[in-house]
Design a protein that fits this description.
The structure holds two protein chains of two kinds. By secondary structure, chain A is mostly helical. Chain A has one domain. Chain A is built from nine helices and no strands. Chain A has helices at 2-17, 19-40, 44-66, 68-76, 79-84, 90-119, 124-151, 158-179, 189-219. In chain A, helix 3 runs antiparallel to helix 6, helix 3 packs parallel to helix 7 (124-151) and helix 7 (124-151) runs antiparallel to helix 8 (158-179). Chain B has one domain (37-198, 210-245). In chain B, a hairpin with a 2-residue loop joins strand 1 and strand 2. Chain B has helices at residues 15-20, 22-53, 68-94, 98-130, 138-159, 163-177, 180-190, 209-260, and strands at residues 200-201, 204-205. In chain B, strands 1-2 form a two-stranded antiparallel ribbon. Classes of the chains: A mainly alpha, B mainly alpha. Chain A binds chain B through residues 144, 147-148, 151-152, 154-155, 157-158, 161, 164-165, 167-169, 171-172, 208, 211, 214-215, 218-219, 221, and chain B through 93, 141, 145-146, 148-149, 151-153, 155-156, 159-160, 165, 168-170, 172-173, 175-177, 179-180, 183.
Chain lengths: 221, 261
């Protein structure tokens, strides 16, 4: 457990050192929110209607951008190789890294959602729903992303191909994520979507570390 | 074609190792190509003749029902090929079998082609019957996702130089993606959407024999076409890898000699 926490701490510290990256990510997230009203016109009612979808698309794209940061630096400086021979299992280390990545790459985005909500004219209820759905759904996004990142870690062009690989896999998250925000879709649908989203997250987070660890092991063979 | 040098059999090979050895595969699969071509062409001729001239028009859809004879077989293959790739992935990861690597690699473009054909014929069929080329219904969306996955896998294969390592990594993502197959298969039962439910279910076949006879012939013909293309592509890939290896050996030898001088 101590090793586990130490890895989380280390990764967060490293991310905090490159605070510029984090801010760029938030900027990108907000900029998607700026682009959409400009592109489709500032009709407030219409924007409020599509706001849940835009929120998720922005989070989706930003998390894809951050994918390369999960393993690449550690692969290049050899830390991953050292971690494979650590006291705790490699899968557990991957899990710790996923938690750290969520805290350092996704949590800032969620903290930036109030601004997004203002720009897209969301009401309070929609906003709270979208924060809940992002908190519940993004772990799955990271979990699938980690598999893609691990598979492409040895490729120089990995940053381009990993999103293409995991995008189709992540679509269910997007579908249920958006439908867990919309309040006017009929009784019970929203709760059901949130529960399915939670189920996807739990399954993905518990199973993908094994696939990720296997991919990293094979890469370093 | 040049004669491929036969590899001396090792004592402990069982029958499966023997037929699955890449060198052995090249030898015995050579005799498979011609019969497969003959079977495929004959069944296609019979199936297409049935489909065009010897099957009734639908009382609602009229002549457009004949699109089904292409649409259903290609859609079936799109899922079948992915399942085959997933099984090969297991073979590649667990037994590290080179033939499984090759099967997995050459199946991806075939799968992508058949999936694209299924989507295309579906769109052509959808326009006169549903009034739209495309609808975001469960089965269409999940089939489109399948196509995207095939394309992603092809892109991943192409981005690796070392094909041996690529095989293992592609296998992992193929197995992760296999969750999409049951979603496609049961999408018509789970969501009550535009696409009609399966015609072949546990309750029997819900269509008259005049229509399902040509359909089954076409299903068989397309499956044979896939097996033919797959076998041929596997042979090509094995020979290509062999040629690659020999080329590299030659280059190594030459540069080694220069270094000595």
């Amino acid at each position: 457990m101590r090793v586990f926490l130490a890895i989380i701490k280390r990764d967060i510290k490293l991310a905090a050192h490159s605070i510029g990256d984090m801010l760029t990510l938030i900027l990108f997230f907000i900029m998607v929110g700026v682009l959409v009203p400009i592109a489709i016109g500032p009709d407030k009612e219409f924007l409020a209607n599509i706001a849940p979808g835009i929120m998720w698309i922005a989070a989706f794209l930003s998390s894809l951008l951050a994918l390369d940061r999960i393993f690449r630096p550690d692969h290049e400086d050899g830390s991953l190789l050292a971690m494979r021979h650590s006291a705790i299992s490699f899968e557990l280390i991957i899990f710790a890294k996923l938690i750290a990545h969520w805290i350092s790459a996704i949590l800032p985005l969620i903290l930036a959602t109030p601004m997004m909500a203002l720009m897209l004219n969301m009401d309070m209820r929609n906003f709270i729903n979208s924060v809940i759905s992002l908190i519940v759904g993004t772990p799955a996004l990271i979990a699938f992303g980690a598999v893609g990142a691990a598979i492409t870690v040895s490729l120089k062009r990995g940053g381009l191909i990993a999103p293409v690989l995991i995008l189709p896999l992540s679509l269910p998250i997007l579908i249920f994520g958006v439908s867990s925000i919309k309040i006017n879709v009929g009784a019970g649908t929203q709760e059901a979507a949130l529960l399915i989203l939670a189920a996807i997250s739990l399954i993905a987070v518990s199973l993908t570390p094994f696939a990720t660890a296997l991919a990293l092991r094979l890469t370093q063979e | 074609m040049n004669k491929i040098k036969q590899i001396a059999p090792v004592k402990k090979m069982n029958w499966f190792d023997k037929i699955a050895h890449p060198g052995q595969f090249l030898i015995w699969s050579r005799y498979l190509i011609l019969p497969l071509i003959i079977i495929t062409i004959t069944t296609f001729i019979i199936g297409l003749w049935y489909a065009f001239f010897n099957s009734p028009e639908d009382y609602q859809m009229g002549n457009t029902v004949r699109i089904m004879y292409i649409h259903v077989p290609t859609a079936w293959l799109s899922q079948f090929i992915y399942v085959m790739m997933a099984i090969s992935s297991i073979g590649s990861l667990v037994w590290r079998h080179p033939l499984a690597d090759v099967a997995m690699k050459v199946a991806a473009p075939l799968g992508a082609t058949f999936t694209a054909m299924a989507l295309f014929t579906g769109a052509l069929w959808g326009r006169p019957t549903w009034g739209t080329y495309w609808e975001w219904d469960g089965r269409m969306t999940s089939t489109l996702i399948l196509l995207l996955m095939y394309l992603g896998l092809i892109a991943l294969w192409r981005s690796f130089d070392d094909q041996l390592r690529a095989a293992k990594l592609v296998a992992i993502i193929t197995l992760v993606g296999v969750i999409n197959i049951p979603i496609i298969k049961f999408s018509v039962d789970w969501w009550n959407t535009l696409h009609q439910p399966s015609i072949i279910s546990s309750k029997g076949i819900s269509m008259p024999p005049e229509i399902y006879t040509p359909l089954f012939i076409m299903l068989f013909a397309f499956t044979m076409l896939f097996i033919l293309l797959q076998t041929n592509a596997m042979r090509t890939e094995i020979i290509r890898r062999k040629a690659d290896r020999l080329m590299r050996k030659k280059i190594n030898k030459n540069s080694g000699a220069k270094n000595n001088v």
